[in-house]
Each structure stands twice: as C-alpha cells, then as structure tokens.
C-alpha cells in the first residue's frame, strides 16, 4: 500500500514546487555548463591563440627533453629546468589574453543568481572596470620591473628583463580586452551573464 502511494506523493511535491526553485535553476546551469564544456569552439582563433599553442609545444618539448635526459640518459641538461619555468610563466600570461577575450576566466558566479537584473548589470560593469584597471597597473609595474631587473638568466645568456617585458605585453593585451568588455557592457552590448550563461 505504501509503495503505490509514494509516486503520487512525489508527483504532488513536484507539482507544488515553485517554478523558480533554486535547485532546478542550479541543475539547469550545470547542465548548460556541461554542454558548453563538451563543445570546444575553435572557429574564432586569433594570432594570440597561435602564439599560445606555439609556447605550449615548446614547453612540452623542453619538459620531455628534461625527462629523457634525466631518466633515460642519466645525464640531465641543466638549462631545461630554468627555461621550462620561464615558458610556464609565458604560457600563463599569454594564455590569459585568450581567456579574457573569450570571457572564460574563473569567476565566482553563485551570488549573481540572487541579484536583480539591473543590479547584476552594474555589478558586472564594476567588475569589468576594476579588472581593466588592475591589469593595466600590473602591465605598467611589470614593465618597470623589466627595466630594473639585474643580470642574465642562470643557464643561458639572455637578460631577465625580456621575461618581464613579455609578461608586461601580455598584461597589456589582457587590459585591452578587459577595457573593450567594460565598454561593451556599459553600452549594454555584452550579455549580463558571465561565461555566456543565461541566468534568469
């Protein structure tokens, strides 16, 4: 008797639940996120993306060379560790230009579900403006650090300042894309939803 009544009780609970149930909205967001993650869109490649791929494969080659010489030949090349570290720094900052252009940086989005539409818009405008200012300041400071960086790299004769200036250039690219996103959102030409998710 209890088994036959259980589905009816569950159906009544489902019907009684409000349409704006937060659990249902979260499930829909996660499902939309899974669909976006499953589909990799490579149609909007730019020259900076090609640069990231190039840096990645150079880094892969250096790390493989380090592994091969250390564990197979038992005679590790000393320069591979330092240069791999510098290429990891490069891929992080140059890759951030692509992430800013696509709006795919990590963001805390949970609270935006509870915020009214107009407040959500101005919150995102403020966030985009602060990101642009912060990245611009970091680009300037990285440039100054490059001008003050003493000496050369340990393993090869390349000035350390080149690395700082490369990071500064990448941060300048991030600043440009952040500023463009800020202007688009200010003019309401950018969707008021991070990561292109529809949060209604």
Helix share of residues?
Answer: over 70%
Estimated share of beta-strand residues: under 5%
Briefly note the structural class of the backbone. Answer: mainly alpha
Number of helices: 6
- Element string (H = helix, E = strand): HHHHHH
Please tell me the overall pLDDT. 80
Tell me the distance between the termini: 41 Å
Q: Ranges with pLDDT <50 over ≥5 residues?
A: 1-19, 196-200
Shape: globular
Taking all Cα atoms into account, the compactness measure Rg is: 24 Å
Largest sheet, in brief, is: none
Number of strands: 0
How are the secondary structure elements laid out?
Blueprint: H1 2-16, H2 22-38, H3 47-72, H4 79-102, H5 117-148, H6 161-186
Walk me through the structure.
With 200 residues, the protein is mostly helical. Helix content is 70%, strand content 0%. It has six helices and no strands. Helix 4 (79-102) runs parallel beside helix 6 (161-186) and helix 5 (117-148) packs antiparallel against helix 6.
Key structural traits:
globular, disordered C terminus, mainly alpha, 200 residues, disordered N terminus
Brief sketch in words of this structure:
The chain is 70% helix and 0% strand. The chain contains six helices and no strands. It has helices spanning 2-16, 22-38, 47-72, 79-102, 117-148, 161-186.
């Amino acid at each position: 008797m209890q088994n036959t009544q259980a589905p009816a009780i569950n159906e009544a609970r489902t019907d009684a639940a409000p349409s704006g149930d937060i659990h249902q909205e979260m499930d829909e967001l996660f499902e939309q996120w899974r669909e976006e993650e499953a589909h990799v869109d490579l149609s909007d490649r730019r020259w900076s993306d090609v640069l990231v791929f190039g840096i990645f494969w150079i880094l892969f080659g250096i790390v493989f060379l380090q592994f091969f010489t250390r564990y197979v030949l038992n005679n590790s090349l000393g320069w591979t560790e330092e240069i791999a570290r510098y290429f990891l720094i490069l891929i992080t900052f140059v890759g951030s230009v692509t992430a800013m252009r696509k709006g795919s940086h990590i963001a805390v989005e949970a609270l935006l579900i509870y915020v009214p539409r107009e407040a959500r818009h101005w919150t995102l405008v403020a966030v985009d403006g602060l990101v642009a200012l912060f990245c611009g300041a970091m680009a300037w400071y990285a440039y100054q650090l490059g001008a003050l960086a003493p000496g050369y790299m340990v393993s090869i004769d390349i000035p350390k300042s080149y690395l700082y200036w490369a990071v500064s250039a990448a941060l300048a690219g991030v600043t440009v894309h952040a500023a463009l996103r800020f202007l688009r959102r200010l003019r309401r030409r950018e969707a008021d939803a991070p990561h292109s998710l529809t949060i209604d």
